[in-house]
Amino acid sequence: MEALFAALEGTALAQALRSSRWGYAALNAAHIFAIALLIGSVVPLNLRLLGVWRGISREAVVRVLAPVAASGLILALITGPLLFSVRAREYSDVGFLQLKLIFIAVGVLSTLALCWTHGFLLKDAPRARLVGHAILSTVCWLGALVCGRLIAFAGD
Q1: What are the tens digits of pLDDT across the range 75-114?
Q2: Start-end of H helices in 50-94
Q3: CA-CA distance, 105 to 109, in Å (whole number)?
Q4: Coil, helix or strand for 127?
Q5: Whole-number mean pLDDT of the chain?
Q6: Helix (H) or strand (E) holding 94
Q7: 73: number of Cβ within 10 Å
Q8: In the predicted model, is pLDDT for residue 141 greater than 90?
Q9: Which residue among 2, 23, 127, 138 sits deepest, i.e. has the most Cβ atoms within 10 Å of its Cβ?
Q10: b/e per residue 11-28 (b: at least 16 CB within 10 A)
Q11: What pTM was estimated for this model as a whole?
Q12: Cβ–Cβ under 8 Å, residues 90 and 63
């Protein structure tokens, strides 16, 4: 794996990001924006699944927030690996990064399983399933957020 991470760090894009203060800063800002879109959509969506704002239909909340969350996730999945490539060997040993990736995988897979089983709008999903998913999803995404921030404080 060390050779793979070294090769990743040696790519032209990783080298360009390492040598460009503003390029790296812009990429970092895009990653933060992606996280804001994702977490900023997932938390209220999960709150609605838990029963908050019952006056607003679940379908309406899902129609508005799910595409925003998906856009944030896609942008984060593009920018995150680019940020990783700059110091891949160093970051690969950080336990917080590994835990962050687990949280992301569980969050994504649980959402895909829920939508696969009950459709995008979750019309026929039983309340207990929605509550369980909302709790798991919130733990996963907030866990990924916290672990991502702690990466900067790990190591040295």
Answers
A1: 999 999 999 999 999 999 999 999 999 999 999 999 999 9
A2: 58-86, 88-92
A3: 6
A4: helix
A5: 96
A6: none
A7: 21
A8: yes
A9: 138
A10: eeebeebeeeeeebeebe
A11: 0.93
A12: no
